[in-house]
């Protein structure tokens, strides 16, 4: 008893005020500047001057970049080196391309999440001969130390964590609008870069050799352009390639949904009632993880095929209105808009957690919450309490933006698969003979999907079985693939 009293007394001596570097959570979680799996190296006393107003140069004297703090480059380099260990296929591509440079002459402008994994992709593209300029596709997902490391290495990068909407478009414009630099390839995630060039620099757009797009949202926008007859360059839909859909969307979200929720809310999943809106690959991954943790999971769907899959996997298929009053967590995974409306938000129970796992921030109607009668209270970085006049509050994560990349990290190995697919799509479009690809949206050839997968198998010490000549003839296949038809998903 005496020991317990001492312990209690000792505990009470600890500081009670929770500052930026709280005792109750790791540095990376409390930092407003970076969510890396390691500690954040951004000094909490960092001045709040906008990077746009700072004059920074790297060690080579270049100022063709805009990042939070170029002095963080050394720490960012270490994170990139860690990521390289889990990205075997990109490292293999670098080795194979030491002799030939399949992207020599390529001028790639990119707009993706700027993380250690993206840095490995960018440096691989550089090793393959490309020149790159890069901006972020999400205002919260940039790792500042990684952006600094890329800028130090000579990559023109324009991104920092916590950009404003105006900063976001300014960064994209700085990537594109450079005297004496005409991009000939676009690597996009969400379609914002493509549409910026299309609307603001139509003449530049016509000179692009190809676009590679990796998100549901961006692909949808490309198909809209194509349908309207306004897509004047070939585009590769990487999102629907098997090595993106079946791996990044499914396995990545299966792990990162729990990570994002834990880091922001410290919640217990067992017994919680969760509704997942959308049962595509992202929804499937989220549902599998939450079910394994003991949550009671409901699913909403518009597609009868995905809905039937949800039922067969043991989930209750409901309309959002039917469960909105009782659920503890609402997760959107649709790529659509206004999935969770103000009416839904008004009917949620006290302390309901609301978050989005789709690319775009349109799924939850966050704008409807910015009204005088509701009070917003910042709890942690990327965690807001929105409080109703009667005292009810909901917990909104990342202001409705992508939860996993805004609030946590995603598994590097899965991103290796996606990044390799992107690199091969760029190589394919850039080197394609005149006329192979017309002004349309294409899927990556199945042979390339299989090649990407095969590059990752040695990590598991996995050994593929080879067909005999007789078996190959029986199946009507080439012994070396492709083993599935192009329409296989």
Automatic annotation (TrEMBL):
Pfam families: AdoHcyase, AdoHcyase_NAD. SMART domains: AdoHcyase (SM00996), AdoHcyase_NAD (SM00997). Residues 249-410 form the S-adenosyl-L-homocysteine hydrolase NAD binding domain. Belongs to the adenosylhomocysteinase family. It catalyses: S-adenosyl-L-homocysteine + H2O = L-homocysteine + adenosine. Keywords: Hydrolase, NAD, One-carbon metabolism. Residues 14-23 have a biased composition (Basic residues). Binds 1 NAD(+) per subunit. Its EC number is 3.13.2.1. The keyword NAD applies. This is Adenosylhomocysteinase. One of its GO terms (biological process) is S-adenosylmethionine cycle. The keyword NAD applies. GO terms for molecular function: adenosylhomocysteinase activity. Pathway: Amino-acid biosynthesis; L-homocysteine biosynthesis; L-homocysteine from S-adenosyl-L-homocysteine: step 1/1. Its cofactor is NAD(+). Substrate binds at residues 115, 189, 214, 244, 248. NAD(+) binds at residues 280-285, 301, 404. Residues 24-43 have a biased composition (Low complexity). PROSITE patterns: ADOHCYASE_1, ADOHCYASE_2. It comes from Daphoenositta chrysoptera (varied sittella). GO terms for cellular component: cytosol.
């Amino acid at each position: 008893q005496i020991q317990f009293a001492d312990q209690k007394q000792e505990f009470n001596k600890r500081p009670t005020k929770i500052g930026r570097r709280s005792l109750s959570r790791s540095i990376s979680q409390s930092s407003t500047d970076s969510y890396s799996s390691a500690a954040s190296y951004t000094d909490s006393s960092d001045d709040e001057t906008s990077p746009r107003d700072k004059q920074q140069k790297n060690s080579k004297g270049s100022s063709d970049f805009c990042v939070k703090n170029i002095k963080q480059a050394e720490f960012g380099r270490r994170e990139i080196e860690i990521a390289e260990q889990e990205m075997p296929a990109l490292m293999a591509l670098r080795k194979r391309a030491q002799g030939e440079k399949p992207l020599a002459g390529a001028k790639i402008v990119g707009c993706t999440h700027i993380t250690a994994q993206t840095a490995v992709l960018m440096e691989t593209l550089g090793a393959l001969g490309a020149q790159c300029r890069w901006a972020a596709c999400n205002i919260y997902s940039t790792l500042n130390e990684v952006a600094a490391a890329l800028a130090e290495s000579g990559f023109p990068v324009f991104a920092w964590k916590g950009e404003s909407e105006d900063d976001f478009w300014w960064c994209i414009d700085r990537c594109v609008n450079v005297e004496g630099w005409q991009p000939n390839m676009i690597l996009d995630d969400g379609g914002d870069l493509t549409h910026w060039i299309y609307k603001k620099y139509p003449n530049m757009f016509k000179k692009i050799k190809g676009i590679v797009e990796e998100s549901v949202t961006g692909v949808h926008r490309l198909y809209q352009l194509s349908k309207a007859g306004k897509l004047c360059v070939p585009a590769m839909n990487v999102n629907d390639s098997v090595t993106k859909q079946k791996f990044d969307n499914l396995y990545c979200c299966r792990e990162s949904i729990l990570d994002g929720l834990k880091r922001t809310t410290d919640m217990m999943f067992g017994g919680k009632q969760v509704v997942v809106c959308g049962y595509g690959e992202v929804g499937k991954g989220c549902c599998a993880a939450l079910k394994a943790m003991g949550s009671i999971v409901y699913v909403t769907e518009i597609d009868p095929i995905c809905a039937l899959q949800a039922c067969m996997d043991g989930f209750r298929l409901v309309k959002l209105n039917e469960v909105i009053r009782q659920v503890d967590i609402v997760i959107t995974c649709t790529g659509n808009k206004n999935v969770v409306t103000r009416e839904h938000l008004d009917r949620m129970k006290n302390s309901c957690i609301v978050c989005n796992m789709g690319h775009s921030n349109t799924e939850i109607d966050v704008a409807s919450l910015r009204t005088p009668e509701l009070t917003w209270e910042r709890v942690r970085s990327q965690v807001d309490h929105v409080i109703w006049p009667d005292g009810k509050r909901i917990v909104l994560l990342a202001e409705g933006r992508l939860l996993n990349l805004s609030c946590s990290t995603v598994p590097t190995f899965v991103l290796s698969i996606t990044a390799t697919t992107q690199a091969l799509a760029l190589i394919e479009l850039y080197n394609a003979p005149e006329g192979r690809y017309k002004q349309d949206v294409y899927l990556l050839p199945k042979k390339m999907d299989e090649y990407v997968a095969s590059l990752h198998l040695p990590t598991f010490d996995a050994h593929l079985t080879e067909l005999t000549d007789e078996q190959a003839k029986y199946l009507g296949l080439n012994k070396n693939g492709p083993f599935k038809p192009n329409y296989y998903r």
